[in-house]
Design a protein that fits this description.
Layout: E1 2-4, H1 8-19, E2 25-27, H2 31-40, E3 57-59, H3 62-66, E4 71-74, H4 81-88, E5 97-100, H5 113-121, E6 128-132, H6 137-141, E7 146-151, H7 155-164, E8 170-175, H8 178-201, H9 205-225, H10 230-233, H11 236-247, H12 252-261, H13 266-272, H14 278-293, H15 298-308, H16 341-356
Parallel strand pairs: 1-2, 1-4, 2-3, 4-5, 5-6, 7-8
Antiparallel strand pairs: 6-7
Helix pairs in contact: 4-5, 8-9, 8-11, 8-12, 8-14, 8-15, 9-11, 14-15
The chain binds 1,4-dihydronicotinamide adenine dinucleotide and 1,3-dihydroxyacetonephosphate.
């Protein structure tokens, strides 16, 4: 099988698969990195201090990496996925399964990674899977015990991938909620940026716990509006990843937020970040998708304002400080009474909206 992308997560995932007994070829863009991985068994820029398994091979030749590969795991920055898939297509084995390891949406279209894969490679969704969960690469590369979720519209595909992506320190669970699993990974990055900002400003645990909890509500309402199961957002791909990313200084999203909170401008932060920071590119498309479904995301909105320099990081809060201040329940559009009226009303509005627009929601980007 092949893993495409030899950054921190691609290399770590190649190790997970190899340690699980699979025969893996890792594709690196740069020949010198492929050489370092194959010969020195190291990827010193991305995973300092980690010894890679002896069986893991690396190459900078995409044709060699893909030759006969029945399963292809993709871990490149979300914004370059489309261009990479165009290069993959000529070498794709018939019936190969493609697995996304990425946690972003395409900025120009708002599409999830599995839908970009489906569109570019024109393959049956049953041959596509996505993996997500609390998976800080360096911790897993050091073989610290961890869980993740493999999701595919085909349970059989999810199970086949999960069997291979399991070893003594890594356990893969399965589900068929691809929307919830992918959006969980995308949205927790945005909340992690907010928590980084809070850390950078110097606020304490109450602010963080309030933002994490309110953030989970935003994540759940958003994902459910696009067809996800709420339970997925309460699982490893939602709450699990939210906890890991918000707590850890290893998180690039959290780190970027911290720098913003300390007063650096977005340009300075982008210059300082050496690795992929998906959250920074996802804010705008996520807010557009939220608007299309009438979902309120005050925390993500404040992250956008801090990124644009229109909100002082010290003013970040679990709620918009400019809102009416009217008492409300904890779910969005909820009046606080213990009934399902708010969500029923939302579902009704959504159905009406879709009927008006021939089955698609108004002006919605393609998630
Ligand atoms: N690092 C982590 O802990 C985890 C990362 N992810 C996700 O994995 C994806 C990849 O992230 P990382 O490996 O962490 O990023 P990274 O920044 O460590 O590595 C990205 C890799 O992609 C390569 N790359 C950059 N531009 C490219 C292009 N145009 N075409 C092909 N390759 C290109 C880089 O050379 C590098 O090897 C992201 O979507 C991230 O959210 C998911 C779970 C954990
Ligand atoms: O997705 C991750 C952990 O699950 C990695 O988070 P960062 O991209 O913020 O480093």
């Amino acid at each position: 099988m092949a893993v495409l992308g030899a950054g921190s997560w691609g290399t770590t995932f190649a190790k997970i698969l190899t340690d699980g007994g699979a025969d893996v070829v890792l594709w690196a863009r740069r020949p010198e990195l492929a050489r370092e991985i194959s010969e020195a068994r190291r990827n010193s820029d991305y995973l300092p201090g980690v010894n890679l398994p002896v069986g893991l091979r690396a190459t900078s030749r995409l044709d060699l990496a893909l030759a006969g590969a029945e399963m292809i795991f993709v871990s490149v920055p979300s914004q370059s996925l489309r261009e990479n898939l165009n290069q993959v297509e000529p070498y794709l084995a018939e019936n190969a399964i493609i697995v996304s390891l990425m946690k972003g949406v395409e900025r120009s279209t708002g599409m999830r990674m599995s839908t970009v894969i489906e569109e570019v490679l024109r393959i049956d969704p049953a041959r596509i899977a996505a993996i997500s969960g609390p998976n800080l690469a360096l911790e897993i590369a050091k073989e610290q015990p961890t869980g993740a979720v493999v999701s595919s519209s085909s349970l059989e595909t999810a199970q086949a991938v999960a069997k291979l992506a399991t070893n003594r320190y890594f356990r893969s669970y399965v589900n068929t909620d691809v929307i919830g699993t992918e959006f969980g990974g995308v949205l927790k990055n945005l909340i992690a940026v907010a928590i980084g900002i809070v850390d950078g400003v110097g606020y304490g645990e109450n602010t963080k716990a309030s933002i994490i909890t309110r953030g989970l509500v935003e994540m759940t309402d958003f994902a459910v509006a696009y067809g996800a199961q709420p339970e997925t957002l309460a699982g490893l791909a939602g709450l699990g990843d939210l906890i890991a990313t918000c707590q850890s200084p290893l998180s690039r999203n959290n780190t970027a937020g911290r720098l913003l909170g300390q007063g650096y401008s977005i340009n300075d932060v982008v210059k300082q970040m050496q690795q992929t920071t998906e959250g920074l590119a996802s804010v705008k498309p996520v807010l557009e998708l939220a608007r299309a479904k009438g979902v309120e995301m005050p925390i993500v909105e404040q992250v956008r304002q801090v990124l644009e320099g229109t909100l002082n990081p010290r003013d970040i809060a679990p709620h918009l400080t400019t809102d009416s201040g009217e008492p409300q329940g904890e779910r969005t559009l909820d009046d606080g009474q213990a009934h399902g009226g708010a969500s029923l009303w939302r579902a009704f509005q959504r159905t009406l909206d879709q009927l008006r627009h021939g089955g698609r929601s108004a002006g919605s980007p393609r998630p």
